[in-house]
Amino acid sequence: MPMIHVVGAGMAGLACAVEIVRSGRAVTLHESAGQAGGRCRSFHDETLDRVIDNGNHLILGANPAVFSYLDTVDGRSGLVGQVRAEFPFVDVTSGERWTLRPNAGRLPWWIFSPARRVPGTRWTDYLAGLKLARAAETATIADCVGNSGPLVKRLWEPLTVAVLNASTEEGAARLLWPVLRLTFGQGEAACRAYVARRGLGPDLVEPGVKYIRDHGGKVCFGRRLRGLNKAGRRIEALDFGAESAALAPGDSVVLAMPAANLVQILTEIPAPLETRAIVNAHFRLDHAVQLPGNNRLLGIIGGTAQWLFARDDIASVTVSAADKLAEIDAAEIAERLWRDVAIALGKPPSAPPPVRIVKEKRATFAQIPAALAKRAQPRTDYENLFLAGDWTATGLPATIEGAVLSGQRAATLALANARR
Ligand SMILES: Cc1cc2nc3c(=O)[nH]c(=O)nc-3n(C[C@H](O)[C@H](O)[C@H](O)COP(=O)(O)OP(=O)(O)OC[C@H]3O[C@@H](n4cnc5c(N)ncnc54)[C@H](O)[C@@H]3O)c2cc1C
């Protein structure tokens, strides 16, 4: 039976290998690290004595590829989601609090309701968002919605940094529009926020690894791909340094690694190499964290913190588009973020509780207009070589949904090649 080699066991490579074994084909998944998950992983932190995620990851109702992956690996119960989409916010400068509540159905009448929309805005302010639908490839979010006013500060900016890991001033309008169309454009159920119940590792990653192994696939850790042996338009062997894997006719390879790693192996592929950072702070409180309306997340405006997530006694803060913050000393970051969290939780000022700061300096590719044309197609000039990863040309931002979708698409191509 033809073998499909998948290189990189992040969400793209895992989703790809899951699809291959689901179709009854042979797969070997090669991963350079000692564990799967890539940028979406959990680990035990000694200081907090808790299993934490490298960063808070939000999944939306409008993420069908993620749900289909979870259904295949029998992992849907690992996600916990909102019963109704609602996004509470606090402005830590003014103390004002509000909740954004999209309505059911495709007609977004929530913008007409002062109780559901952002305070201080008029329904006509939201019409600027429609400009994103027809934005030029060179346009940023700010080119479409402007760069000042309460709606920019309280909706467009937090939405853009959360979705694109970029500010409205630099984020690509062409990447935000598909997300708006698939969420707010579909109604409240598509906007519901889901998070991993226990953590990304146990709830998203490990069920995939188990499914692949249970269905006869191989998962090899500590295996770094160093090069490809090519002959004409075919890949003949994978070079792992001390070992190599020869490819028989009908065998294929899917490279599901970040752009920066890929271009070391395939120098001819254009790829978006500029990246942006995300900083997460995980604070351990001496009680369970309670957020408004029993929500698992809270938007923070007017401070350094952007989103606060609650899981048991851990209050986790995310700051996206955080290249400058990532250069600062961890203790100083903890002080700054705890100031915002204390206000958000209604606590008096105090020194930060036990904390772990995680800086992901290359969290995503820079999702700016100049990067769009550099996203690679899944097919390459080699007949048995395919690409996956959140940075490839999915039409979606660099998210778990984009990564999983890219893996599933590459699996379809590799399976078709195996059948030829
Ligand atoms: C802090 C943070 C917060 C985020 N928040 C969200 C969120 O809220 N919602 C959301 O949807 N997305 C979020 N994302 C984005 C999401 O994590 C990524 O889009 C997704 O995990 C990318 O998956 P991937 O498989 O494409 O790449 P990766 O996860 O990078 O996987 C690539 C794998 O390839 C391996 N590899 C690299 N080179 C080699 C080699 N030569 N040989 C073998 N293996 C190799 C790597 O070790 C890695 O395991 C966030 C990311 C970060 C970092």
Order of helices and strands: EHEEEEHEEEHHHHEHEEEEEHEEEEHEEH
List each distinct ligand once. Answer: flavin-adenine dinucleotide
CATH-scheme architecture of the largest domain: 3-Layer(bba) Sandwich
Q: Strand order across the biggest sheet?
A: 8-7-16-17-18-15-19
Structure at a glance:
This protein has about 425 residues and is of the alpha/beta class. The protein is built from ten helices and 20 strands. Helix 2 (about 65-70) crosses helix 10.
Task: Summarize the structure in words.
- It is a single chain.
- With 420 residues, the protein is α/β, with parallel strands linked by helices.
- It folds into three domains: 3-51 and 199-273 and 374-419, 3-Layer(bba) Sandwich (FAD/NAD(P)-binding domain), CATH 3.50.50; 87-191, no CATH class; 275-365, Polyamine Oxidase, Chain A, domain 2 (Alpha-Beta Complex).
- Helices cover 27% and strands 23% of the residues.
- The protein has ten helices and 20 strands.
- The strands form five sheets. Strands 8-7-16-17-18-15-19 form a seven-stranded mixed β-sheet, with helices on both faces. A five-stranded parallel β-sheet has the order 10-2-1-14-20.
- Strand 1 (3-7), helix 1 and strand 2 form a beta-alpha-beta unit.
- The longest helix is centred in the C-terminal third of the chain and has 20 residues, at 400-419.
- The protein is globular, with a radius of gyration of 22 Å.
- It starts with a strand and ends with a helix.
- The mean pLDDT is 97.
- The chain binds flavin-adenine dinucleotide.
